[in-house]
Amino acid sequence: PPVPNSLDEEEQSLNIFLDIEAHRTKHIWSSPSELTLIDRSVHTLLAHCQALECLTGEGYMSLAERVLHQSRIPYWPDLVIYLDIPHSEVMTRNNGKFASDSIFINCDFNLGIRQYFLRLRNLGVPRLIWLDATLDPLNLRRQAKAEAIELLGSHKYKT
Predict the structure, then answer these.
(1) Cut 0.85: pTM above it
(2) Which residues of 1-33 are buried (b: 16+ CB within 10 A; e: fewer)?
């Protein structure tokens, strides 16, 4: 569940996510490719747990850090792209996708996620591209591409 009933329940969920992650990323470990794109990463799980902790005051973040860092399963990306979006836009785009009481459209929860990525950006590892998700898709792709090329320091990815 998006909001667990206990730290034990969240630990069980994290272990399930690790199994899913193992299947999702197995090709990365054996791929000769220099560039692999994945939707969501281990940082998404950590951000989720930080946001839960912001809402509940329970130690979800330290639990997630312990579980994820002790595992050999997660793929820790070198580059993360974060799509930042104001809460008003979240509400506009929701269009009933999530119920009004869903954690996924809760302002404080999303602020906790944003705070995680702000902290990650300030750490500088992994490298992080911060994008304004209110941009139209074409400009968003252009900005992501330009910043990725700059951060990766390679001309191989210009196509």
Answers:
(1) yes
(2) eeebeeeeebbebbeebbeebeebbeeeeeeee
